[in-house]
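Changelog-adjacent note: as of this version, every example in the card shows the full chain rather than a window. The one below runs 95 residues end to end.
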Amino acid sequence: MQNTDFKISVTKAVRTFSELVNCVYYKKNRYLLVKGNKTVASLEPLTASPEFKVSDFLELLKSLPHLKDQEAKSFQRDLKKAKKGLKSPHNPWAI
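Full-length structure tokens:
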């Protein structure tokens, strides 16, 4: 498996984009896109992001600020008002 940097013109990158993406994905190549003798962008493999587990999500939720009792009650009233204002979608098959 290669891991090489290549300089390529933006014009050539446009014309061979699918091939470049395959080389990035399978060979882990990195392409520096050049326009007018200036490197303007790169096309390279993404680094693996860390796995985010459900337990991590639960810990995140626990760490967030909580509503105080009065705020929670007020929020609940607002949700009930909003729900009353919603109309059910028309169902032509309903009796």
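Structural remarks: The radius of gyration is 27 Å.
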